[in-house]
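[09:14] KT: can someone run the structure on this one? pasting the chain below
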Amino acid sequence: MQMIEISKLKSHPRNQEFFDDIPKERWDDFIKSIVRRGVVEAIVVTQDLLIVSGHQRVKACKEIGILEIPCRITHYPNEDEKLHIAKEDMILEDLICTNIMQRGVGNVNPMKMARCIRELERIYGVKKGGNGSNQYKNLNELNPNYSDEAKSQSDLAKQIGISQDTLLNYKKLNELIPELQSLVETGALKSTTAYKIWAKMPQDEQEKFFNDIGQEKIKQLTQKKTEQIISEKKQLEDKNKQLQEQLEKEISKEPEVITKTVEVDNTDYAQIEQLKKELQSTKSEKEKIEYRLNLMTEKAELYQKDSLEYEKMKSDIEFLTNKKDDLGRQIESITSISGLVVDIDHFIKQKLAPIKYSRALLEARNDDVVINNLSEIVTVVQGWCDEMKQYLPNEINYVEVL
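[09:31] RB: done, structure tokens below
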């Protein structure tokens, strides 16, 4: 391990493709931890000072102003001669696996986790089903002494700490069209809705329904509503297609010749009219469903707006309540102090006015007991005044009582 200047380090160009930055609510604590303890664990870099693990620690150091960071340098050959893996793929494998393991909960972004799995399968040569030929299996065939077994989907799932079913669900996200992948990545579309409903459709169907429903409406729909709307649209389109085919079939019928001079038209015009009516009815039903969808979306938007306004009003009321309580306490304190000032002023000017006792003091000035008692009382009062001064702000001028 050695200390290296942060300015010399290079971020991996694909790090953001696979991993998000630490979210804002955790970033401040992360910064405080590094300020308090420093970078405890060294980051991992290549011999070319390309960061493999530690992008977030480097980012935090830059923000704090730390100039050097402890690094562990890993040397990567141009190619792994045993596994025939290129240097770039060896680095990428370590980037993905190390970061998934270090973050403890894997990759919290499901879309980026799906990309990690796809990239690891490419590097390991894992085929669909997990039992296909890959470089590990090929190496076993070439060298019987080589102990590593061929990688499977099950092996990969264990390696990154998830179940095989979870791995397969992540993989389905890679089958989404780019627009849906973007919604999953930003959290606007739940991953469960994405792989349970959208990923089951071919991409051309995904694109069609995405355009029909619209991006903003997709964000607001629950999984159940999404499934219901897509199912209804599919049923209507299938029925529409069937009616269209029947209509075209009737229209295309050839007239039959009865005699050389008379031709009979076998077209069933009544059937055609009936099909046209059903087709029109289907279109009307489709429009009604789309109208219902728009109404539901508008209601959802209104509920969301009302909820935000309610939270704001609730926050304002809480703020005003606290402010009122603070003002009440201030008024109570000011009233109490004002009463004390009035009482002391009255007590000093009326009961303790020195002029009232001037004659007695002159007559008793040679009495040591009286003089000592008065001196002690003056000291006590002076002490009380000094203690009260400590509670007064320095910049405020005040009048000494004695």
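[09:33] KT: thanks! Residues 372 and 378 are 10 Å apart (CA to CA).
[09:34] RB: yep, looked fine to me
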